[in-house]
Amino acid sequence: SFSDVVRDKPDISWQEQRDSDLQRSVKFWMALVDRWDTKCSLCCSIAELGSTSRIFTMFAHLFAGRAPITVRKRAYSIMRLCDYLESVGEFFPCNERLFYDFLCSEQLGNAPQSRLKGYMQSVNFVRFVMSVDELASLTTSARCKGACLGDHLQERVQASPLTVAELNRFHQLLRAGDDLWIKMFCGAVLMAVYCRSRWGDLMRAETVIEDCDKHGVLCYLEARTGRHKTMKSQMHRHQFLPMVAPAVGVDGSNWGLAWLDVRSEEHTSELQSRE
After folding, report:
1. CA–CA distance, 244 with 55 (Å, rounded to integer)
2. Would the pLDDT of 236 be above 50?
């Protein structure tokens, strides 16, 4: 059932959820920076602002256009570094030697390579996004970059790809499922698979285009989203990301038409429940 893999979340739009996540990330960073050396250039800028509301606005401007999950991920890495520095009686920002010692201690603890790379990415994030130039020696250090490569290679853990048999099962549930929401979920999964979309990109789709042939038969479904991973790149700036899925799946049925019917049925049911 969809209930085995879908978590309950507040019934709010993705825009509201994104704003909420960003606010939590900003508050996390504000608490984290409060642990830094007061002589840091960023801490001096914060001291000049005074009020908490102005400090919050400044952090929001620093992270403008950044994904909240990325902002939070960078904060967790810097928090680990701050914990280490405080254990040896120092504060962030630190010098290159202390950062190298920290990376070596993480290596000795068999930290995964992704975490080691994350430390360097986070230091670069603080230096360039938050304008903390005191970290220049850390980001250019050859030995720190080498330590981030790691010596303990681990096999990547990820979900297995869907098989044709599993896709056929999704088609079957979409056509003949007993629960309306199970059918809705199966259609959404097929949409993501056939248009090869990230789940987050599909969730943020702003328009859906039904592409039919000259006989009026649905052939393709196209979703367009304005917020996606490469939206800030020079090549794709101010462009919608088109995601096109063939309406006929591996089982030969028109799953796209079936999914649209399910969506229409769910919408009608929701309106009736409100009345």
Report:
1. 43
2. no
Half-sphere exposure of 150 (CA within 13 A, CB side): 16
Tokens linked to 23: 């606010």
Average pLDDT over residues 109-137: 92
| Residue among 238, 240, 233, 227 nearest 68 (CA) | 227
Q: Bridge-partner residues for 241, per DSSP?
A: 225
Residues 6+ away with beta carbon under 8 Å from 165? none
Of the candidates 199, 213, 183, which has an alpha carbon nearest to the alpha carbon of residue 243?
A: 199
Distances (CA, A) of 186 to 11, 44, 181, 268: 20, 53, 8, 19
Task: Indicate the pTM of the whole model.
Answer: 0.69
Tens digits of per-residue pLDDT, 165-220?
Answer: 999 999 999 998 888 888 998 999 999 999 888 887 888 887 788 999 998 899 99
What gap in Å lies between CA 106 and CA 55, rounded to an integer? Answer: 33
CA distances from 29 to 20, 22, 35, 129, 231 (A): 14, 11, 10, 13, 24
The residue assigned the tokens 């902002």 is 71
